[in-house]
Amino acid sequence: MDNLPVHVGIIMDGNGRWASERGKKRSEGHKEGAKVLEKLAKYAKEKGIKVLTVYAFSTDNFKRSQEEVDYLMDLLIYYFNNKLDKVAKDGIKVIFSGRREPLREDVLEAMDGIVKRTKDNNKCILNICLNYGSQEEIVDASLKIANDINMGIINREDINRETFFKYLYQDLPPIDLLIRTGKEHRLSNFMLYQSYYAELYFVDTYFPDFLEPDFDKALEYYASCNRKFGGVKEDNPNRLKKKNN
Ligand code: IPE
Ligand code: IPE
Ligand code: MG
Question: Is 149 within a domain?
């Protein structure tokens, strides 16, 4: 496909509603969502996407019941040690964005394990945002910069909008296409700095129902966008009628 995004971000939302609408517990929705992530990571790699960043758990998600938080953490451990590990062996390098505190020790161990096992893979990067908040990331980056300036490691003139990326949790290219499933049209503290010129794609489908053909539709939408970055450019002939699905 022409015009493939280098970096795709997904706000994987709607697991709870997917389950409630089927008379199931919210945890069932998270379980289905994890299966979809496994499929999409593989698919993105096959398509030639270089970086896939997914929002798995926000710093604010700790506001949920202890039962739900525990379930999610156990599910993540299971996926890192089993399912995703198998997918990742096939060329995907797994990395994480977020604060380590206050994640449980067993969660940190599972994270470190999959990072280590996949560190030499080079087909696609799967960046998992876990205990992630974008405002926290920007604050943390600013503190690191202040520290490096104080220590004489860098000069203040070295900091600009490009070099700032190096101080974020991961030094990745900016997000080209940002997908949010599950009806809401908001960013919920996801990748605010990296999404500065991202094309935004909101879809009503809940994440457990967001499969490969839906991902293809998002890529098709992206291919039709007329990215200008503040400049002037002739209209993209493939431009689709803009709509929020
Ligand atoms: C997204 O689904 C997964 C996480 C935030 C962990 P939700 O759990 O937010 O599902 P809804 O939005 O309540 O349906
Ligand atoms: C964003 O979804 C976080 C993740 C998908 C992990 P939320 O469900 O937490 O966001 P809000 O509360 O609807 O904004
Ligand atoms: Mg939600």
Answer: no
